[in-house]
Amino acid sequence: MLIEVLLAKIHNVRITQTELNYTGSITIDMNLVDACGMRPNQKVLIVNNNNGERFETYIIAGDRGTGIIGLNGAAARKGQVGDELIIMTFGLMTPEEADAHEPKNLFPDRQNKLL
Questions:
Q1: Active site residue 58
Q2: Catalytic residue among 22, 55, 58, 90
Q3: Which of 25, 27, 57, 112 is catalytic?
């Protein structure tokens, strides 16, 4: 049996831009993506702490060191610039693997930069 567990979380980043006329997804500064072991095109679950929205999309690589967190396409309707998000990835593991697993939790500063 496999169970779905948290792999990584980027906690309390702020939306820096929204682009409704785009194909979709979330753009994330690659420094943040790499630091928590996420990957471009990976599916993510996003929670907006300001309005309670929860939605899934995929990662698009953002320029390094910019702190960009951009909601694109339909996702742009799920938040506003300045809203705080939690971005999470999950994976399948056996219960034994899950018992030994430690998720990578990232807590960037208020400008979405690594501390």
A1: yes
A2: 58
A3: 25
> Domain containing 29: what range?
3-95
Tens of pLDDT, residue by residue over 43-57, are 999 999 999 999 999
Q: Is residue 58 part of a domain?
A: yes
Task: Provide the 3-class DSSP secondary structure of residue 92.
Answer: strand
Report yes or no: 108 and 10 within 8 Å, Cβ to Cβ.
Answer: yes
Look up the CATH number of the domain holding residue 56.
2.40.40.20
Return the sign of the alpha-carbon dihedral for residues 62, 87, 56, 15. Answer: negative
CA distance 14 to 68: 9
| Beta strand 69-72 pairing with 84-93 | unpaired
Query: pTM for this one?
Result: 0.95
